[in-house]
UniProtKB/TrEMBL annotation:
Name of this chain's protein: FAD/NAD(P)-binding domain-containing protein
Highest classification ranks of the organism: Eukaryota, Fungi, Dikarya, Ascomycota, Pezizomycotina
Tree of life domain: Eukaryota
Signal peptide: none
Organism, as annotated: Verruconis gallopava
GO molecular function: NADH dehydrogenase activity
Keywords assigned by UniProt, alphabetized: FAD, Flavoprotein, NAD, Oxidoreductase
Keyword Oxidoreductase: yes
Length: 573
């Protein structure tokens, strides 16, 4: 039986989910339906059986034991031993593109190895729901390793690619504290060349860095969260791209309400620490604001009845409109729905800084532990208890670091589109989108390269190197950076590799728009269908949204039913 409010109230800061357990074997793949939203996406968290992330500990022996236990990645020699005559496909990344490809590939033809610092796949459409307790965390993840999956896995960061020798340099990441959290900057940011060289030599000697050979390389490293170098965002904002981010948000929500509930907290401070700012008016930010409003007005009002009147949710966006990916009528429906519910939308707003501590209240500067100050251009400073940052994507630094310049490549590994004299004497580089920095591929998803200097518009593509997901774009195409596109690219590439017909004239990737949707709260949603489907809004769209989730996660229907009976699982006892 669920704990009563008083008991759950007392267990707020224990943080280990106990209710709504379901068998891990009953959960099917989450990949049959790909979300049509940009990848949603700050602090280290303690793991439990809800998802496969190493548990934090402070004793040296425990850390070493854990590393040995978690380091189940078989050695490269053993990989070679069990390879037989199969080609080896190395996939960099365990997101929508990389994980989908690993599931769809024919393991009788190929030995598949995923290299990723994260040992699980995240079903990003469910992160907003898990962050407020509608769903438990494990409904949003699937482990890379499983009895059903023949994919080999190496938990590490890809550091470099040697196209001539067809190897990837990997740095192990078994005990890396950054796993499970949104990434906002390069791991070696701020270090000079001498420091990097010294660290690299040490890692090679200690076995932390090693090479892995490949026959075919799939680059699916995804993107980082974009912060636009706004002061204080990396340090103080919450993101929503991984399970650790969702857990950090849930923890911070509870801290805000518990602080506001203290008898020593004055009302003017309560109004600020219960003010929740969402920066970014895309589907991720909109859905989180909707889920948060549901939590406050359906559950928190029973636990903290005297505090709901102090709560406020504000959405900020630099664009003139929110939900710009949707048809204008649907976006207007969403804005009007939010206005009726008291969620304020401020468009054409530029955030300048997020700093610790509340702004001046009655002449006194409040303690920095209570909240943050959000500086908006042209407006007075706003005190907030939490700032959710969801403003878009930044290209993964790995692309520029490891792939921008090609040192050497075997002539038989490159297919030249144009006649090139003395091609091997030229310095080539990976083609990148000038706006986003993404890898440019052809319509068969092979990576394109072009020579440096004044050699004209010469192009070639790498025979066995592909790029899929957010880190890549197809030349001449403007597909959105969504999980739906990543999923379709992965499925298409797996099918072509399985059939070995990538060279056929008819085998070119074509994106099929299956529609996009967003939850608006209070059992309302918007749905913009693909070709010939049309637009739907309100409760009917919400039913479509809910059914899409229920049929893809077998436990979701049970969790939703329990949520209606006992409230959201926002207390992690």
């Amino acid at each position: 039986m669920a704990a009563n409010p008083v008991n759950r109230y007392a267990l707020t800061f224990s943080f280990r989910a106990t209710s709504r357990r379901t068998s891990s074997n009953s959960r099917p793949s989450l990949l049959d339906w790909a979300s049509s939203r940009p990848h949603a996406s700050v602090r280290y968290f303690t793991a439990d059986e809800d998802y496969p992330v190493p548990k934090h500990t402070t004793t040296i022996n425990a850390v070493e034991d854990l590393r040995l236990e978690q380091k189940r990645s078989i050695s490269t020699a053993e990989l070679d031993k069990y390879r037989d005559t199969r080609e080896r496909i190395v996939i960099l990344g365990s997101g929508w593109a990389g994980y989908t490809l690993s599931r769809e590939i024919d393991h009788k033809k190929y030995q598949v190895v995923i290299v990723s610092p994260r040992s699980y796949f995240v079903f990003t459409p469910l992160l907003a729901s898990t962050s407020v307790g509608t769903l438990e965390f494990r409904t949003a993840v699937e482990p890379i390793r499983s009895r059903r999956n023949q994919t080999s896995f190496i938990q590490g960061w890809a550091e470099d690619v040697d196209l001539f020798n067809k190897t990837v340099t990997i740095e192990e990441a078994v005990s890396d504290p950054r796993q499970g959290l949104a990434q906002t900057a390069a791991r070696d940011a701020g270090k000079n060349a001498e420091q990097l060289q010294t660290e690299t030599e040490h890692k090679i000697r200690s076995g932390q860095m090693f090479d892995l050979k490949y026959d075919k390389l799939i680059i699916a490293v995804g993107c980082y969260n974009q912060t636009y170098n706004i002061k204080g965002v990396k340090e103080h904002a919450n993101f929503l791209k991984d399970v650790g981010d969702a857990r950090a948000i849930r923890k911070r929500l509870l801290e805000c309400f518990e602080t506001a509930a203290l008898p020593t907290t004055p009302d003017d401070v309560r109004r600020q620490i219960l003010h929740f700012a969402v920066v970014g008016g895309g589907p991720t930010g909109i859905e989180f604001a909707a889920e948060l409003h549901d939590l406050i007005h359906e559950d928190m009002k029973r636990i903290y009845p005297g505090l709901v009147r102090f709560t406020r949710i504000t959405i900020y966006d630099v664009s003139p409109n929110v939900l710009s990916q949707f048809d204008g009528k649907l976006a207007s429906f969403a804005a009007e729905h939010f206005a009726r519910r008291g969620i304020e939308i401020k468009t054409s707003r530029a955030i300048q800084e997020l700093s610790p501590g509340l702004p001046f209240v009655d002449g006194n500067l409040r303690s920095s532990r209570l909240g943050f100050t959000l500086k908006v251009k042209g407006e007075i400073d706003e005190g907030v208890g939490m700032c959710i940052w969801s403003t878009g994507l930044m290209m993964n630094p790995f692309i520029q670091k490891a792939l921008s310049t090609i040192r050497r490549f075997p002539p038989n590994e490159v297919i030249f589109k144009d006649k090139v004299e003395d091609a091997l004497q030229l310095q080539w580089h990976i083609m990148q989108d000038p706006k986003t920095g993404a890898i440019v591929t052809n319509d068969r998803l092979r990576v394109l390269i072009t020579p440096d200097g004044p050699h004209g518009p010469m192009k070639a593509h790498l025979r066995d190197v592909f790029a899929i997901g957010d880190c890549s774009v197809i030349e001449g195409k403007l597909y959105p950076a969504t999980a739906q596109v990543a999923n379709q690219k992965a499925r298409w590439l797996a099918k072509r590799l399985n059939k070995n017909d990538l060279y056929g004239e008819t085998s070119r990737f074509r994106f099929r728009n299956l529609g996009i949707m967003a939850y608006l709260g209070s059992a309302k949603a918007i749905f913009e269908g693909g070709k010939g489907v049309g637009n739907i809004s309100g409760r009917t769209a919400w039913l479509i949204w809910r059914v899409m989730q229920m049929v893809r996660t077998r436990s979701l229907g049970t969790n939703t039913f329990k949520g209606r009976l006992s409230g959201k699982e926002y207390f992690m006892a």
